[in-house]
Design a protein that fits this description.
By secondary structure, the chain is mostly helical. It has three domains: about 190 residues, Growth Hormone, Chain: A (Up-down Bundle); about 50 residues; about 230 residues, MFS general substrate transporter like domains (Growth Hormone, Chain: A). The N terminus is likely disordered.
């Protein structure tokens, strides 16, 4: 057993059925958590129609994002201390409990609360599943396996909305939350049986104060970002101030404790810093585009919601394919090259969107979306593989979680930043436009509008989204710049396995 860590190497090796089944369990768990974000979006109109509480419907998404994001670093550190299996079980248990209760919700406040429980569980599932696979595969193998895991997100984005629509139409919106139960139960059982993890027992001092400060700091700052448009100014400033002060206190505290919840020594490693910041950039770019592209197709182009979904679906398809291909390319080349290729694809897709006009139609938008999906597949895979190969076993959970956490932060910043640019541009062109453009989204309402009004609002919306895509392009170029700092000639074959 190693002397510097808590865990010893897992007893699942190449060629054994157990390793394949552990991989299958991790794929199932990752899909379960990933599809939850996409499947619920389809059900919200039906849920609001039955439960009411329209003023709280955005919190169904916000609270899940917040609790998932802020718990990721905590779970990653706990997995390094107590082992992957118990933390994975706790996360899955919380997630499945929250899912069950969401399906039993009697009003919107109860649904929001149960979504928070679900989010706390989801914060463990994806990073710990990725860490488990990082433990049982070598760096060269990880390039292919993590590409497969990354493709799950693209598949979930395609399957989720269709599955949600089918369940609502033929059964009930409540079943949308319960569909995860058998998947989660099977994943737990397979990990319990086939992942043989030996834990070296030694005394630990769990940094609970650090956990609390981390939760308050990033929870407050992300809440201010995500809900800044709906919070009163006084509340917004208060939440931001609390988050900022907690962040300062967190950094001071973590620099003094023996076993910090947020190991600051990881951020002295070049590969950790560059790949984690790269994850931030890809998250911001992706969300800055995907959050608003369907609105462009429906509002500025006057096409159906189905057309908007298909345009965004093109990104999911190429994301899944590129994740697998990118893993194979990095084995033969280097991390830096694959990351740069992905960032160039992201920038190219964003640039295509800045040239988009309502007259171009959905095909041009779909091609741009497809190109961006290639970038997401390449970047997400290379960042996680490089990070996992750069740290020993005892730090792999925290390192993996840091990358995923910054990806969530990037998504929040991308959505908030591009939304702010969109609204500011729209208000500058026509102060009445933010309320009026809602009518462009509904086919029946749009048909009753005067042609001159449609033309004016279409121009305002197109110009506003153009500026939002310029910001997304800036995020993509930032990702490209960050990728240039990845050490040259480093690849899965030239990076030693650390246990």
């Amino acid at each position: 057993m190693p002397n510097d860590g808590t865990l010893a190497a897992p007893e699942v090796r190449e060629g054994t059925p157990g390793r394949t089944l552990v991989l299958a369990a991790c794929i199932m768990a990752t899909f379960m958590a990933a599809v939850e974000s996409t499947i619920v979006a389809t059900t919200i109109p039906t849920i609001v129609g039955e439960l009411g509480g329209f003023n709280l419907f955005s919190w169904v998404f916000t609270i899940f994002l917040l609790t998932q994001a802020v718990s990721i670093p905590i779970y990653g550190r706990l997995a390094d201390i107590f082992g992957r299996k118990p933390v994975f079980f706790v996360g899955c248990g919380l997630f499945l409990t929250g899912s069950t209760l969401c399906g039993l919700a009697w009003d919107m406040p109860s649904l929001v609360f149960f979504r928070a429980v679900e989010g706390f569980g989801a914060g463990a599932i994806q990073p710990i599943a990725a860490t488990i696979l990082g433990d049982i595969y070598t760096p060269t193998e990880r390039a292919k396996i993590q590409g497969l895991i990354s493709s799950v997100f693209g598949v979930a984005a395609v399957v989720g909305p269709s599955m949600g629509a089918f369940l609502i139409q033929h059964i009930s919106w409540r079943v949308v939350f319960w569909v995860n139960l058998p998947i989660g139960a099977a994943a737990i059982a397979m990990i319990a049986v086939f992942l043989k993890e030996r834990v070296q027992h030694r005394d630990h001092r769990v940094d609970w104060l650090g956990s609390l400060l981390l939760f308050v700091a990033f929870g407050g700052l992300m809440l201010a970002l995500v809900q800044r448009g709906s919070l009163a100014p006084a509340t917004l400033w208060t939440v931001s101030a609390i988050g900022g002060l907690a962040l300062v206190a967190l950094l001071v505290h973590e620099s003094r404790v023996r076993e910090p919840m947020l190991p600051l020594e990881l951020w002295r490693m070049r590969i950790i810093v560059t790949c984690s910041l790269g994850s931030f950039g890809t998250g911001a770019t992706m969300m800055g585009v995907s959050a608003f592209l369907p609105s462009y197709v429906q509002g500025a182009m006057g096409r159906s919601a189905i057309a908007g979904g298909l345009v965004l679906g093109a990104m999911s398809v190429s994301w899944a394919l590129a994740s697998i291909i990118g893993g194979r390319i990095m084995v033969r080349t280097s991390y830096r090259l694959v990351a740069a290729m992905g960032a160039v694809a992201l920038a190219a897709g964003c640039f295509m969107l800045t040239l988009l006009s309502p007259a171009d139609g959905p095909l041009w938008a779909a091609i741009a979306s497809f190109v961006m999906g290639i970038g997401m597949g390449f970047c997400n895979t290379v960042f996680i593989v490089a990070i996992q190969a750069s740290v020993p076993w005892r730090q792999r959970g925290a390192a993996t979680s840091s990358s995923m956490f910054l990806r969530f932060v990037g998504q929040a910043v991308g959505a908030a930043g591009c939304g702010a640019v969109l609204n500011a541009t729209m208000l500058g062109l026509d102060p009445a436009a933010p309320r009026a453009v809602d009518r462009l989204m509904d086919g029946a309402t749009r048909a009753a509008m005067l042609p001159a009004e449609i033309a004016h609002l279409t121009d305002v919306m197109a110009a506003s989204l153009h500026n939002a895509y310029l910001l997304a392009l800036a995020f993509a170029l930032l990702t490209l710049a960050i990728s240039s700092f990845i050490p040259a000639r480093l690849s899965p074959r030239h990076q030693s396995t650390r246990n």
